[in-house]
Amino acid sequence: MPSAAAVDPQSGYCAVTRTFHSLRAPIPLPPPSPPLSFPAFAFSLLPSPLPAHAAFLDAATGEAVPFPAFLGQGYGLTETTAGFCRSIGVEESRRIGSVGRLSPGAEAKIIDPGTGDALPPGVPGELWVRGPFVMEGYLGDKESTSEILDSEGWLRTGDVCLIDKDGFLSVVDRLKEIIKYKGYQVAPTELEDLLQTHPGIDEAAVVGYTDDQTGELPVAFVVGRSGSNLHEAHIKDFVAKQVVHYKRIHRVFLVDSIPKNAAGKILRKDLAKLALHRINAKL
């Protein structure tokens, strides 16, 4: 069994201490009885806390046929050539919101983007990672390489993450998408997840709107569910009751859809331009 990851309580530096005594192939499963027919069964994820347990659903009855498997989380970048963080086994996979712990040979630390200082466990900042899996650089582009890799081999991921005291990594947001309000950092995805717990909201996206006094203000674009009766004041109050003051939504725009690219990623630049247009139109 892997041992606990070592996390320095002051610097937040995390080095893997996993040790594996043996590896073996999964135990073969007996054939199902009766045999599964894919026209009649569909592979699906049953509603449950992440990671979900897999099951086959009978297309005729909707009943679940138990399937002995679980889904784990993992994390990696193109620049790391592979995933360097993952959950192993059922217990680690029950850490909801975590992508697991470091793989063998990996080192990581969380850095304050403003000061460059290492942060302690539980505090979000930019994830830096080092190990033999990290690329040597971008071919023929020394400038871009120097922007992402330092002289000691640390790769700046550009992701805002946190590492807890047990060494489990959670991804918060992309650094470039963080909203900066009076020196505070606000993760759009945190507010989007909160907004989507509202029974009348189908989809939500949050972006920063430039403000002379605060730097940026969080504004939300919301798609309502069919038959819902949403109002800006109600939505702002819904969020304000559940977050600290600097994470409050300052404007809400009701829209028919959220612009996304082919991969389903929210087009935040388009929304920022739309917010600017709508706010200026009201001035």
Give the helices and strands, then pairings.
Blueprint: E1 6-7, E2 14-15, E3 41-45, E4 53-58, E5 64-70, E6 74-76, E7 83-86, H1 89-93, E8 101-102, E9 107-111, E10 125-130, H2 142-148, E11 155-163, E12 169-174, E13 179-181, E14 184-186, H3 188-195, E15 201-211, E16 215-224, H4 232-240, E17 251-254, H5 268-282
Parallel strand pairs: 16-17
Antiparallel strand pairs: 1-2, 2-9, 3-4, 4-5, 6-7, 7-8, 9-10, 10-11, 11-12, 13-14, 15-16
Summarize the structure.
This protein has 283 residues and is of the alpha+beta class. The chain has 5 helices and 17 strands. The termini are far apart.
Features:
283 residues; alpha+beta; Luciferase, domain 3; GMP Synthetase, Chain A, domain 3; six-stranded antiparallel beta sheet; three-stranded antiparallel beta sheet; 5 helices; 31% strand; globular
Explain the overall architecture.
The chain has 283 residues and is of the alpha+beta class. The protein has 2 domains: 115 residues, Luciferase, Domain 3 (Luciferase, domain 3); 105 residues, GMP Synthetase, Chain A, domain 3 (2-Layer Sandwich), CATH 3.30.300. The protein is 16% helix and 31% strand. The chain has 5 helices and 17 strands. Strand 6 and strand 7 form a beta hairpin. The longest helix is centred in the C-terminal third of the chain and has 15 residues.
Number of domains: 2
Instruction: Give the spatial strand order of the biggest sheet.
Output: 1-2-9-10-11-12
What's the level 1 CATH class of the largest domain?
A: Mainly Beta
Number of beta strands = 17
- Count, helices: 5
Q: SSE string, helix = H, strand = E?
A: EEEEEEEHEEEHEEEEHEEHEH
Beta-strand content estimate = 25-35%
> Roughly what percent helix?
10-25%
Low-confidence stretches: 16-54
Helix/strand structural class: alpha+beta
- Give the N-terminus to C-terminus distance in angstroms: 62 Å
CATH superfamily of the largest domain: Luciferase, Domain 3
The major pleated sheet works out as: 6 strands, antiparallel
Radius of gyration: 22 Å
CATH-assigned fold name of the largest domain = Luciferase, domain 3
What CATH architecture of the largest domain do you see?
Answer: Roll
Pfam families: AMP-binding (PF00501), AMP-binding_C (PF13193)
InterPro entries: AMP-bd_C, AMP-bd_C_sf, AMP-dep_synth/lig_dom, ANL_N_sf
Catalytic activity: (E)-4-coumaroyl-AMP + CoA = (E)-4-coumaroyl-CoA + AMP + H(+); (E)-4-coumarate + ATP + CoA = (E)-4-coumaroyl-CoA + AMP + diphosphate; (E)-4-coumarate + ATP + H(+) = (E)-4-coumaroyl-AMP + diphosphate
EC number: 6.2.1.12
